[in-house]
TrEMBL record:
Organism: Kuraishia capsulata CBS 1993
UniProt cross-references to InterPro entries, sorted A to Z: SRR1-like, SRR1L
Family: Belongs to the SRR1 family.
Cellular component GO terms held in the UniProt record: cytoplasm; nucleus
Coiled coil region boundaries: none
Pfam family, one: SRR1
Name of this protein: SRR1-like domain-containing protein
Domain SRR1-like, first and last residues per copy: 46-255
Amino acid sequence: MGAKLDVESPEARVEKLKRTREMLGKRRDAFAKTKTYADALEVIRNKLANIDIVSVRCLALGSPSNEFNALYQLAFLVLILDELKIRQVSVYDPAFNDIDVLLFEELGFKIEDKITQKVSKEEDILYYMPHAPVELLEEIITSEKIVVMITNDLRRYIGRWTSQDLYEKHPNVARIGYLTSQIRSEQPSTDDGFEMVASKKKVRKNRRNKLKVVDTNVDYHLDECYFDSCDIAEILGGSDISGEWKDSFSCLAVHVIR
């Protein structure tokens, strides 16, 4: 019987990298054949048809070599890159380990050393941030003035806090939620300053979509932000958790912020 390889040994790392590479390829190929992916791709094509994406920043992915969801999310990113013919990609997450770094290098990705970067305002960058925490989304939207991103559907944060609390904690997330709720609402504001807005929740068995209340009396100081509209389209919703990828893609949406 051969000796057990130490997890820190070069041999063990080579073997783990090989397994991770193979699993990534299998998940990419399997997901590419699904209707779920075809539907998601159609939404992405439609929303980005008039936008010339030159590069991708991938943040908060997690560790593909250690995390089930992160590997599926990476497989989806690889498919998007192939479809959009994008080769300039950077990644950052403190969760990355040596195996992840080697995998990204094989894929031709640049590994960044910090979360925020100086980005060109003359280029449209696609930010890929699946399941990123709202605090990070607020930070990146504010510091880098994002135009296009694939991340959690920001409309889902409406109702988790009061409108005033959401604005005080995460002002740009609140503004985006407010602007999109105005577009989606088909009911006029009532005299009490509140507006009923239809909002999708995660699909759960025997549970209906509910209405949420947006407080139209909150001053969002829209003249102080870099955008005045946001188009959001869900691409992989809660109904997709029945697939073998489980909740890797739940609530993801394309956001175009102008």
